[in-house]
Amino acid sequence: MKPGIFKPLKTRSYRSLFGAQVFSDLGNWLDFLTLQIIVVYHWGLDASAIASVIIVIGLPWVLIGPFASVFVDRLPKKTIMILSLLFKIIFVVGLYYSPNLYVLLLFVFLKGTVSSLFDPARQSAIRLTVPEKLLPEAVTLSQLSVNTMKIIGPALGGGMIALFGIKSPLVFEIIGFTIAIIFLLMMPKIDEEWGRTSQNNSKKREFWKELLEGLNHIKQTKLLYLSIIISSIALFIIFLYDGLLIFVGQKLGFNETSYGLLVSSVGLGSVVGALLLGQWTNWKNKPIHFMSSSSVISGLLIISIGVGSLGIMIFPKFIWIIGAFCLGLLASGESIPYGYVLQSETPKEMMGRVSSAAMAIQTFSMLIAPAIGALIAKAIGVSLVMIFAGVITICLGLMVLLFILKKHATTSLKAKGLEG
């Protein structure tokens, strides 16, 4: 393994930022799995309840994130992240004591609200702490944190539930956010000269003009625009079945403890994928090709899981765990190139607004997907939803690849003087 992937960690500011992200991501994954287990296994609710949780998690990113991002670009990023984590701790306490689904959804929404501020501030801080030449490695490390916590979070969560009770992971989530705050407190002051200039100028500018700058930048930057569209459609497909995956897991024979292994396998595959992409960075020359190719192969795996849950293909659990690992491996082929395009195609002073606008576009597609997935599941069953999602995933990848090939062929013809 080339040491290049870890070069950004030599910078003290990025090292502190990365440490904070690791423990923040750990808390988020403890949270996500625990909420599903509470709703399905503890309260005995159905797919509609899971869909409502997923929808409420994403709602703040659409309703609040894009508007608040203007202030994220104006204000010190370190302060925003620390305050966001402090409020997260308060809202996790609320989740712990939630007596029913409705109260739980309230605190899920509040926690999502501060998360929609934390993430664009973190994205901006990456640009402020590493030089341009280390952006691929920094983005890969950031995604590596998310993917690694997909393994550690569910695994720890399952162990904690077995040893200390169903809500115990929420206590450890609070501890994780506290450690993340400590890392940020140790973070050296980062240079935000452009931020102070922007803040002074913004007093003379209209709020809405600043807000629209993020959307206009996306619209005018073709590579960024295309990557966001692909990512948004891919996320819609994922969230079409994501809330149903726990029910698919039940059909495949996984219980509340072993289901954590299935989720962890996806995370392990993502980690291995991130490490491979960190070693081989030629993908940055053709990120869209890489994203669409990964989509085609992922679709085949999703169909296989759906067919398996119908009982047509019967395999031991470890085979499905291997399949989940491969699915995670391919997921890195979509998420990491997208993260690099977002960072490399956006000016530092607009990072908060652009990343938040991009997240809002993606989240909007994610919000409607769980409800549609739940409705389809009631009509035809969760297994057929998985198969349907796999078919769409393949079609997405093939359409993008065909579009690229057609455009390339047209360009070549024009260059040879055979057209126009």
UniProtKB/TrEMBL annotation:
Lineage top rank: taxon: Bacteria
SUPFAM superfamilies attached to this UniProt entry: MFS general substrate transporter
Cellular localisation: Cell membrane
Transport listed as a keyword: yes
Segments forming domain Major facilitator superfamily (MFS) profile: 1-408
Keywords per UniProt: Cell membrane, Membrane, Transmembrane, Transmembrane helix, Transport
Principal localisation: membrane
Keyword Transmembrane helix: yes
Recorded topology in the membrane: Multi-pass membrane protein
Positions of transmembrane segments: 49-72, 79-97, 170-187, 223-247, 259-278, 290-312, 318-342, 354-376, 382-405
Cross-referenced Gene3D superfamilies: MFS general substrate transporter like domains
Family matches, as PANTHER family: MACROLIDE-EFFLUX PROTEIN (PTHR43266), MAJOR FACILITATOR SUPERFAMILY (MFS) PROFILE DOMAIN-CONTAINING PROTEIN (PTHR43266:SF2)
Protein name, per record: MFS transporter
